[in-house]
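Hey all, quick one. A colleague (J.T.) asked me to put the magnesium ion job into the tracker so the inputs and the structure tokens live in one place instead of scattered across chat threads. No bug as far as I know, just bookkeeping. Sequence used:
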Amino acid sequence: MNDLKDIVSKFEIAGKVTDVKPMGEGLINDTYKVFVEHCDKPRYVLQRINNAIFQDVDMLMDNINKVTTHLRKKGKETLRFYNTKRGNLYYMEEISPLPTVGRNDVGGDGGKYWRLMDFVPDSITYQAVTPEYSYIAGKSFGEFESLLADLYQPLGEIIPDFHNIEFRLKQLRDAVSEDRVGRVAEVQYYLDEIFKREEKMTLGERLFREGKLPKRVCHCDTKVNNMLFDKEGNVLCIIDLDTVMPSFVFSDYGDFLRTAANTGAEDDPNLDNIDFNMEIYNAFTKGYLEGTKGFLLPIEKENLPYAALLFPYMQTVRFLADYINGDTYYKIKYPEHNLVRTKAQWRLFERAEAKLTP
Ligand code: GN1
Ligand code: MG
């Protein structure tokens, strides 16, 4: 951990670093909690930004700065909407990156990029939530989008076509035709099922081309564990702003449900654990519609059930493409991990499809 301590020392921090320990469940960046002397709780969060995936780190930091500045500015007028004890936006401010000694806000280290943020004290993350917490989460993500609806400074598309399902299907087709590591034959069943639904699942992109569906500023990674709660269940803040960019509102709505309404794990090896929980779905939808009140178009509201299907579908496509490509994108813990993830996401999709198709 000495190297990591050296890296932390490049930032302007208070106190001497005593320990740096791995943290979190992220599949892309490496995250650590940092301890300093005279304090037994973590003081900072250190992250290595995966710049193979986030190739334009300056754009990434610029997006985050625009968003947090805007929220901070509006916070002064809108804080009353937050009945949480400490207020969402205050913590938004605290998680803005700290300055480094030398460069501005990202510590470069031979092609590696490091970022240090305050650890939000007494915060808790969950991998699973109750209907009550889902309602709160829906409201918070909805308000997050509402507050950003008048951000006029354009944000960069940090990963182009990130949630464009037509593009993700093309990547899957390319992976299949290359078949780099000879895995296509064993996954043919999933490929057939996916492509059978291509027309229905690419609806969003068609509506966009017809000028009927707008792009908004979205978080684009609204997994349950990207929201910090306090002990009483109040939302403290929304974290992991790396993928904040223009997208359909479907992104934030759908990706939350993909994780929260799943009764099993994202990579559950036991498919019998997986179901789509309608209580969570209804509670989150109620909160989300309240949080976005006044700015969602009818076409966005009408297609929320489509969004709930789109994200397990898209995640299946992405995990499967990575499996076929030989596991180059997502961190894996064992060789078949991306296949297990594919099967688990597909089971979730099937369950959601059965429950949400009229
Ligand atoms: C990745 O930030 P992290 O590791 O939680 C991914 C998301 C996927 C998710 C699947 C930049 O998120 O899009 O939905 O894994 N982020 C990126 O768990 O690809
Ligand atoms: Mg994350």
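Adding what we noticed when we looked at it: Residues 71 and 89 are 7 Å apart (CA to CA). The radius of gyration is 20 Å.
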